[in-house]
Hints:
- This protein is α+β, with helices and mostly antiparallel strands and 80 residues long.
- The chain has four helices and three strands, in the order H-H-E-E-H-H-E.
- A hairpin with a 2-residue loop joins strand 1 (31-37) and strand 2 (40-45).
Amino acid sequence: LKRYSHQHKYITAQIACAWEEILGKSVAIKTSSIKLNQRSLIVKLNSAVLRHKLSMDSDKIIQRLKEKLPHISIETILFY
């Protein structure tokens, strides 16, 4: 369980770094948290407008994350 926790934190950190690289610093600043729950990426944003825009582009974002992090399986992104 402890090993899983460390691995999960490492994967979450990798996703956070890729998130900023893919979407830019301005989006990363408005992102308050990123969590991976099985195959769903849960992203909390500080802007309703940005939340709407990114939800419309979620398929493209998933594709770019898969290209950047092929070892991590993400099927959906949930924006809050």
